[in-house]
Design brief:
It is elongated and about 175 Å long. The N terminus and C terminus are likely disordered. The longest helix has about 70 residues. Helix 5 crosses helix 7 and helix 8 packs across helix 9. The chain is α+β, with helices and mostly antiparallel strands. Strands 6, 9, 10 and 11 form a four-stranded antiparallel sheet that branches. A three-stranded antiparallel sheet has the order 3-2-5, with no helix packed on it. Strands 1-4 form a two-stranded antiparallel sheet. Helix content is about 55%, strand content about 20%.
Length: about 375
């Protein structure tokens, strides 16, 4: 056992031991005081610490929270009087409800994801919660294992939101409402617990029927979507055809009113004209009869294309007649279609052309009115 004793009997002492002994012998108690001062300064120097950006320091004095420091160089009374815990308050953390991500793939946790809806159906819901620390002191000292408290509170909030809705609403129409209600309820629970956690986002990863009946639910959803589509198409057709039918009906009514007004006014005009002619006929029957006869002939003879030819002096021989006017019209239209003819622009040329193509006729005699 002698080899473990220091200094060993008969051995040489280290040089620093001799030097320290000489200093103590020389200065006496001042040497002890200087050593104590140096030790005190070194102990006080251990109180400096640095808080990085995005973090906050929680200072504890004899175990009780006494201050919260901001990023930068800070100082505390060294241990064991004060200690500091640095908490990252800027990073976004996440927790998973209804599944766990292992090796990059989500694995369903059926004991968390299967929930009961308002219409007594079971739905598979998986949610991703994103959060950050807003109060580091409450996060450290408010509750034990705040991350586990967050997961439990999130499951409670999610089951509460899903339990107030039908399964069809959770799967299709009201997914966003499930997310918003779950986030609001979760924030109230965490604030009441004093966890110091701020929920930034709640996202539904899966909201579907259980795997065993998922195909049947999808068929029902597709049928409902087809029904909604057909109803919308019928509504659109109705909105298109009804205004059109109303417009056609209104048009027919307006046309019938216009036709009625036209016929009534025309009948009144004809009646007034007949009354005026009758009045004139009563005053001068011969003149009125002659005028009516001439007007009738003008109206009749103006419609057909006729040529009146008188008898010649040679006892009734008919001058050969060639319908050059009609042939001229036909030939002119043919030339205009072919593009080879040129229209007559000079009035003198037009007169000469008309004189050359005009058929010589005897001046017609005035027809005699039969008596």
């Amino acid at each position: 056992m002698d080899q473990y004793r220091w200094p060993q009997p008969g051995g040489e002492k280290p040089a620093w031991v001799d030097k320290a002994s000489s200093i103590i012998e020389r200065y006496g108690n001042y040497a002890y005081l200087g050593a104590a001062v140096v030790a005190l300064l070194l102990w006080l120097a251990t109180g400096f610490y640095i808080v990085s950006p995005g973090e906050q320091g929680v200072v504890r004095t004899f175990g009780r929270h006494s201050a919260t420091t901001d990023p930068g160089l800070n100082y505390r009374i060294p241990w064991p009087i004060q200690t500091v815990d640095v908490v990252n308050v800027a990073s976004i953390r996440r927790t998973e409800i209804g599944f766990r991500t292992t090796t990059g793939r989500p694995v369903a946790m059926l004991e968390e994801s299967l929930m009961l809806t308002k219409d007594e159906n079971i739905v598979d819901v998986q949610v991703l919660i994103q959060y950050r620390v807003k109060d580091p002191a409450a996060y450290l000292f408010g509750v034990q294992r705040p991350d586990d408290v967050l997961a439990s509170a999130a499951e409670v909030a999610l089951r509460s939101s899903v339990g107030r809705m039908r399964i069809d609403d959770v799967i299709t129409e009201r997914r966003a409402e499930v997310q918003s209600e779950t986030q609001l309820f979760l924030e109230r629970l965490l604030d009441s617990y004093g966890t110091g956690i701020l929920v930034t986002d709640v996202r539904l990863q899966v909201a579907d029927a259980p795997q065993q009946v998922r195909d049947a639910f999808h068929e029902v959803v597709r049928a409902r979507e087809d029904r909604e589509r057909l109803v919308n198409e019928a509504q659109a057709y109705m909105e298109d055809i009804l205004p059109r039918a109303r417009g056609v009906s209104r048009q027919i009514q307006e046309e019938s009113i216009a036709y009625r007004e036209e016929r009534v006014r025309r009948a009144r005009g004809e009646a007034s004209r007949f009354s005026q002619v009758l009045e004139e006929y009563r005053r001068a029957p011969d003149v009125t009869r002659e005028r009516m006869y001439i007007e009738s002939l003008e109206e009749i003879l103006a419609k057909p294309g006729k040529v009146l030819m008188s008898q010649g002096a040679d006892g009734g021989s008919v001058l050969p007649f060639l319908p050059l006017r009609g042939m001229q019209t036909l030939s002119g239209s043919s030339r205009s279609e072919a593009g080879g003819s040129k229209s007559i622009q000079d009035p003198a040329d037009a007169a000469r052309h008309d004189a050359a193509t005009r058929t010589p006729l005897q001046p017609p005699t005035t027809p005699q009115r039969p008596r």
